[in-house]
Amino acid sequence: AGYHTVCLGGVGFFNQRAALGSVLPSLFAMAHWEPGFGVTSPTSFEAQVAKAEEIVARLPHERTLFLFVNVSALHQPNWHHLPGADAAHGDTRESHAAALEYVDRHMGRLLAAASSRRPCFAIVCSDHG
Q1: Burial of 84 per CB tally in 10 Å (0-12, 13-18, 19+)
Q2: Which helix (H) or strand (E) holds 30?
Q3: What is the pTM of this model?
Q4: How would you write the pLDDT of the chain (129 residues) with one tens digit per residue?
């Protein structure tokens, strides 16, 4: 009956550590956030994709899934996506482009997981690229 709704948070609005960080997650049957999904993790999207793969694999085939992923890799700081950069370099257009490339490299895994059970309809929105 209906979709099984899952949120994979990234930024603080999804961390469930305070009232503000609990509002959006409360709209889903399941909500996941961990520091490895957060903005300071250079492998945040890979961790989110791995969690999505795990969720899809455990979901009964007859259940339909609505999966929301807040991709934190595109938020600051993103300097860690540039080889050789450090915090002193700060975020630049180049580091933002590197973050986009990082997400793009792993998007196929997310879409493969989402469509592994049945046809998938994906909506991609962005406020940071």
Answers
A1: exposed
A2: strand 30-32
A3: 0.93
A4: 689 999 999 999 999 999 999 999 999 999 999 999 999 999 999 999 999 999 999 999 889 999 999 999 999 999 999 999 999 999 999 999 999 999 999 999 999 999 998 888 888 877 665
The count of structural domains within the chain is 1
| Cα distances (angstroms) measured from residue 32 to each of 7, 8, 66, 80 | 6, 5, 14, 24
Order of all β-strands in the sheet with 3-8: 30-32, 3-8, 64-69
* Residue 28 covered by a domain: yes
**Residue 126 is assigned to a structural domain of this protein:** no
Give the domain extent around 88: 3-114
Q: Is 107 inside a domain boundary?
A: yes
